[in-house]
Structures are given as structure tokens and as C-alpha cells.
């Protein structure tokens, strides 16, 4: 029997299900299931992100305008990217330009991949009049410390012979001089806020190379070369600016782009989901709500450390609204997900008839999950 709608709307605010569904489609499917099980329920879709891939899509779903931009991909080949713009605020997603998904043929280039295209997106936002830029880090294909990003903004990196360095983290070992050019003037009056959910420093065993280099295809000698390059980069930035942020939490994010943002762009860093919820107007969306439904591809131990569903649960709980979760896989025990603030949790794997259905039939099963939650939590 369909659940009977009661007072108060429902907010559906999931992150993407990586590899299967974008956040907007997850939200639409769960919402469809809720509406089918509880006709007449006011269901509002607000897909979220934590600063990584999907950040741009979440901003667009929240009413930002898409502005296309052709920029350099991680290996220098042009890619079609975009920024999101609303008023004087722009959202720039690193993965749009320099993400792993932008590698030609999926072939990694750990020593040569660069963040130049991200700098081009920032320049585009500034040219459009943005005075606040939210930079989402995540999914990076490069370990260049953000050198490419600032090169795109006119900063010169030169070797001992005065030749400009080519892109990529390996070349940074030859860095001898930094020319900041007109960087300060370009960014005068522009606030840059980095959305980041990691606290790694730039160097060392928890740094950009050691932790994330292998994800970008680096191993063996590559890791030594990249670490040496980042150390040289940090030393040169310190000598040129007097600022040394190599040990700052988040400096190692996105192959060290966090370092360049902090040291050279004057950026501040915020937890990704916290910043995105603020940007998307989450507090306003949940005011008077009866239920919030969030989720992601896998609800696991990482979820509890700054991932989108945990951030949504915390914000909804502060607002006095119950929270439920839908996940492709559920690897937390019931005591764990209840302690994280979830009233109910549904996994697509538990709804699937056959192994693999949770991936191949994810959209259909997300609707079923919405129905289950409506029946359990919205009846009466």
C-alpha cells in the first residue's frame, strides 16, 4: 500500500555513484521512487559533491549557469571543459581540465601530466567577472604541485639556463627561478576558496607523491623523480615569496595543486562537503523538511571522514531532520551507520537479484530504494 504523505517535504541530496550514475541521476531516480510510493509528497532534488568530480554538476543542478571553455587537458591536448557561474561566484572543478578521465585513451602520464588547464579555467572565471572562485580538487591526473596552474596565469618557471620549464612534475627538478609576473594584479579582489576533503602535506610519506602518485600511474623511479621535483618547487616558492606551506593540511591535494593555491593564489581551504552545502543552499533547502536522503556508491569507513553523505547527515541532524542513505554497497555495520546519524540505510546490492545488478541496473534499483525508504519512513 502506498505511504501516506505527511507535512514536510523530502530533500534528496546524494553524491554520484562513481562509475554508474551522476549525482543528478541518483537524485532523480530516488525521488521518482519516493513519489511513486508516496504520491503527493513534495520531493526536492539537490545533488551534492565534496569538491571532487561531480562538483560542477552539483552547482549546475543548484541553478548555476554552465560556461563552456576549451582548455589544455593533462597532457596538453585540448579538452572541452566548463565552469559554473552564478552572480560573482564561479565554481571550477579541477577534474574538468586535469582529471584522470581527461587522459587520452586513459593512458597515464605521471611525469608529464600538468594542471595548466585548471589555471585556464580560473582565468576564464576572472575574465567573466567572478570575485569568488570555489576550486574543487579531486581526481587529478598530475603531480606537478600546481605549477601548470600558475603557468597558465602567467607565472614563469625557468631552469638555470633561463629556459622555461615544460609541463609536468618531472621538470620541476630543474627549476632555478620563479617569475610571478602579474599574478597578484590578476587576482586582486578575487577570493579563492579550495574545496578539499584531504589533509595531506605536499611532501613525505603522507604527501602528494607517496599517497596519490601510484593512482596517477607513478611507480619506482617515477616516485623519486616527482618527490624531488615537488621539493624543489616548494623551496623555490619559499625563496621567492617568503611563504612555506609545504606542511599545510591539504597542500598535497590533487598532486600538490593545493600547495600552489595556498602559496601563490592566496587561497583558503575548506572541507569540501561543508563548502558545497553552503554554496548549494542546503540549510535553506532542509528548513521544514521531514526527511533528507543522501548516498554515494559505497558507504564505508571513508564516508565517515569528510565524504558527502556524512556531511549531509551532520548538517541535516543540526537542522533536526532525519537522514537516510542509499548506497551501491553498504560496508558499514548498522551500529556504525546509525552512529553517523542515519535513520535508515539501503544498499542496491541488497535489492539486486543477481551479482552485478547493482552496477548494471543501478538506476532502476535506486528507484526501488526510494520506494523502500518512503514506505519505511514516510508512512502515516
TrEMBL record:
It comes from Kitasatospora paranensis. PANTHER family: GLYCERATE KINASE. InterPro entries: Glyc_kinase_flavodox-like_fold, Glycerate_kinase, Glycerate_kinase_RE-like, Glycerate_kinase_sf. Pfam families: Gly_kinase. The keyword Kinase applies. This is Glycerate kinase. Keywords: Kinase, Transferase. SUPFAM superfamilies: Glycerate kinase I. One of its GO terms (molecular function) is kinase activity. Belongs to the glycerate kinase type-1 family. It comes from the Bacteria.
Amino acid at each position: 500500500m502506498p505511504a501516506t504523505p505527511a507535512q514536510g517535504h523530502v530533500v534528496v541530496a546524494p553524491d554520484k555513484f562513481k562509475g554508474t550514475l551522476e549525482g543528478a541521476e541518483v537524485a532523480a531516480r530516488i525521488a521518482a521512487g519516493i513519489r511513486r510510493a508516496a504520491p503527493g509528497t513534495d520531493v526536492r532534488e539537490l545533488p551534492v559533491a565534496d569538491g571532487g568530480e561531480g562538483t560542477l554538476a552539483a552547482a549546475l543542478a543548484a541553478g548555476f549557469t554552465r560556461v563552456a571553455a576549451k582548455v589544455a587537458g593533462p597532457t596538453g591536448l585540448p579538452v572541452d571543459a566548463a565552469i559554473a557561474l552564478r552572480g560573482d561566484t564561479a565554481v571550477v572543478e579541477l577534474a574538468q581540465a586535469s582529471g584522470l578521465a581527461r587522459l587520452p585513451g586513459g593512458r597515464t602520464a605521471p611525469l608529464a601530466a600538468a594542471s595548466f588547464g585548471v589555471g585556464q579555467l580560473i582565468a576564464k572565471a576572472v575574465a567573466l567577472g567572478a570575485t569568488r572562485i570555489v576550486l574543487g580538487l579531486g581526481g587529478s591526473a598530475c603531480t606537478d604541485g600546481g605549477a601548470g596552474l600558475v603557468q597558465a596565469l602567467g607565472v614563469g618557471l625557468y631552469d638555470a639556463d633561463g629556459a622555461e620549464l615544460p609541463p609536468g612534475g618531472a621538470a620541476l627538478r630543474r627549476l632555478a627561478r620563479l617569475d610571478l609576473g602579474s599574478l597578484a594584479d590578476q587576482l586582486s579582489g578575487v577570493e579563492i576558496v579550495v574545496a578539499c576533503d584531504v589533509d595531506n602535506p605536499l611532501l613525505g610519506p603522507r604527501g602528494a607523491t607517496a599517497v596519490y602518485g601510484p593512482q596517477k600511474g607513478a611507480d619506482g623511479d617515477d616516485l623519486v623523480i616527482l618527490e624531488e621535483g615537488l621539493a624543489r618547487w616548494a623551496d623555490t616558492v619559499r625563496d621567492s615569496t617568503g611563504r612555506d606551506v609545504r606542511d599545510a593540511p591539504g597542500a598535497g591535494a590533487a598532486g600538490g595543486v593545493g600547495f600552489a593555491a595556498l602559496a601563490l593564489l592566496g587561497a583558503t581551504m575548506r572541507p569540501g562537503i561543508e563548502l558545497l552545502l553552503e554554496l548549494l543552499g542546503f540549510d535553506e533547502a532542509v528548513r521544514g523538511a521531514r526527511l533528507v536522503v543522501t548516498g554515494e556508491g559505497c558507504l564505508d569507513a571513508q564516508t565517515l571522514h569528510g565524504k558527502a553523505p556524512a556531511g549531509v547527515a551532520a548538517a541535516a541532524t543540526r537542522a533536526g531532520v532525519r537522514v537516510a542513505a542509499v548506497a551501491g554497497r553498504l560496508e558499514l555495520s548498522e551500529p556504525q551507520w546509525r552512529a553517523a546519524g542515519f535513520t535508515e540505510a539501503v544498499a542496491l546490492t541488497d535489492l539486486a537479484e543477481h551479482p552485478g545488478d547493482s552496477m548494471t541496473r543501478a538506476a532502476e534499483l535506486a528507484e526501488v530504494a526510494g520506494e523502500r525508504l518512503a514506505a519505511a519512513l514516510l508512512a502515516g
